[in-house]
Amino acid sequence: MSNHSIQYLQRAQIDTVKWDNCLAAAPNGLIYGYSFYLDRMAVDWDALVLNDYEAVMPLPWKKKWGTSYLAHPPITASLGIFGTAVTPALTGLFIQAIPPRFKLVDLLLNPANFLPTSQLQSIRNNYVLDLQSTYADIYSHYRNNVRRNIKKAQQLNCRYAVGIQVEEVIRLAHWQIQQQATNIGEEDYAHFKDLFHYLLSNQAAEACGVYTPNDELVASCVWFYSKARAYYILVGNHPNGKTLGASHYLIDRFIEAHAGQELILDFEGSDIASLAFFYSSFGAVNEAYPALQFQRLPWWLQWKSKGYPKINS
C-alpha cells in the first residue's frame, strides 16, 4: 500500500461487493463494518476508500442545524479503518482525509487504529475471551463469584434456552436501557430486529435466555457471528435475575457449548468498572481501542462539541 490514494465516496458510489470483500480479508474486519450492518444501523453513511478497496473507513453521518457531522451508530461497538495492512501512519492519513464538510467527528475506531500520539484519540476498553481451550480449562480461570452464581442458578432450576424470540430480548433490553437514559430509540430497535433476521437467515445470529422455573425470562442476549468471533451484541436482563446468578449462567452455558472452537467471545465493553469486572471474571482480557473526537465547528456552535479538540482542516 505504498501508493496512498484515499477517495471520498457517497453510499451510492460504493461497490458493495468490493467493500465486503475488503472486510472479509481484513485481519481487523469486524462485523460492524460490513455493508449489511451499516445499511441498517447507520442508515446514512458514506466512506473513505484506499485505492481499489485495499482499506476502507465508513463515515456514518447525521445533519442538524444545517451542519453535517459524523456520529457513531447505535448498537455498533467499533468502526474505523479496516484493511489488510492498517498502520498508525495509514490511520493518520485516513483521519486527515475526512472531508471538511463534517464539522464534528465522534466515532469509535477499532484496535488496529491507534495513532502514536494524538489529542484526537482517547482509549476505550473491550473484553474478549478466547474459547479455543477446553471448557474445564476456561472454567478454571473463572473467579469464585462466577462459579458461585452458576451453581446458584443450577440449584434454583433456572433453564437455559437457545433460539428464543428476538422480541423477548429486545423487550428486556429496551426496558433496561430506558433506565440508563441512552439515545437508542424505537427506530433503532426496529433496524436491529431487521439486522438480526438477516443474519439469522445466514445462520450467523441467535438469541438465548435464562428462565426461572415459572418461565420468567430474567437474562437474555443476542449473539452475532462473523469471522470466528461471537458478539455479545444486545443484552436484556431483569432485576430478578441478579439474585439468581442468571447472567453468569447465560454466559457460562454459551462458553461450554463453544469451548474448543476457534472462536473469540467479544463482550463489547466496557468502560463501566462493574461491567469490566463482570467480563474479566470469566477470564476475558482487555482489547483496548480508540475513540476519535474532534470538531471544526464555527465559534457559535462550539459549545455543542463537549470540549472536543478543534482542528483547522
Automatic annotation (TrEMBL):
Give GO terms: molecular function aspect only.
Answer: transferase activity
Tell me which species this is from: Paraflavitalea soli
Record keywords: Zinc-finger included? no
Keywords of the record: Transferase
Residues folding into a coiled coil are none
Domain named BioF2-like acetyltransferase: which ranges? 141-262
* InterPro entries documented for this protein: Acyl_CoA_acyltransferase, BioF2-like_GNAT_dom
Q: Does the keyword Transferase apply?
A: yes
Task: Please report the name of this protein according to its UniProt entry.
Answer: GNAT family N-acetyltransferase
- Where on the tree of life does the source sit, at the highest rank? Bacteria
